[in-house]
């Protein structure tokens, strides 16, 4: 959940669609700009543990890999899915308790 929360907080305000007319504005550039490379450090995980978490989150449909792109360590780069956005929105609107890992304070 820590990895999921970190990725979500980095990417939650990203647009869901990018203009086709400007190839310099795209998901990859946006994800990198928001600190993708710092996810493992912020979650205090080694590369193997991070990769395992990413695969699990992708299998759940919460994130998807940007196909054809690797980060500096040779691992894939992932982006949150509309399913993940809706899931967190549901949690935020139905929970009586603050969800600390999905809310920046």
Sequence-ordered SSE layout with sheet pairings:
Elements: H1 2-11, H2 27-33, H3 39-43, H4 47-59, E1 63-70, E2 76-80, H5 82-94
Antiparallel strand pairs: 1-2
Detailed description of the structure:
This protein is of the alpha+beta class. It has a single domain (about 1-15, about 25-95), classed as Arc Repressor Mutant, subunit A (Orthogonal Bundle). It has helices at about 1-10, 25-35, 40-45, 45-60, 80-95; strands at about 65-70, 75-80. Strands 1-2 form a two-stranded antiparallel ribbon. A hairpin with a 5-residue loop joins strand 1 and strand 2 (about 75-80). The protein starts with a helix and ends in an 11-residue tail after the last helix. The mean pLDDT is about 85.
Short structural summary:
It is built from five helices and two strands, in the order ααααββα. It has 105 residues and is α+β, with helices and mostly antiparallel strands.
**Strand order of the main beta sheet, please?**
1-2
CATH class: Mainly Alpha
Any low-confidence stretches, pLDDT <50, length ≥5?
none
Between the first and last Cα atoms, what is the distance in angstroms?
17 Å
Could you say which structural class the secondary elements and strand pairing correspond to? alpha+beta
- Mean pLDDT, as a whole number? 85
Which architecture name does CATH use?
Answer: Orthogonal Bundle
Helix proportion of residues, in percent? 40-55%
- Give the amount of beta strand, in percent: 5-15%
The biggest beta sheet, please?
2 strands, antiparallel
* SSE arrangement, N to C: HHHHEEH
Tally of contiguous helical segments: 5
Radius of gyration: 14 Å
The rough form would be described as globular
In the CATH hierarchy, the third-tier topology is known as: Arc Repressor Mutant, subunit A
Number of domains: 1
How many strands appear in the DSSP assignment?
2
């Amino acid at each position: 959940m820590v990895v999921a929360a970190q990725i979500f907080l980095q990417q939650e305000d990203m647009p869901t669609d990018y203009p086709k007319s400007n190839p310099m504005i795209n998901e990859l550039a946006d994800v990198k700009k928001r600190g993708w490379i710092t996810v493992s450090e912020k979650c205090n995980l080694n590369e193997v543990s991070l990769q395992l978490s990413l695969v699990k989150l992708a299998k759940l449909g919460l994130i998807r890999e940007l196909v054809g792109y690797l980060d500096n360590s040779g691992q894939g780069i992932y982006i949150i899915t509309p399913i993940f956005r809706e899931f967190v929105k549901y949690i935020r609107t139905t929970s009586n308790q603050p969800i600390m890992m999905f809310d920046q304070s």
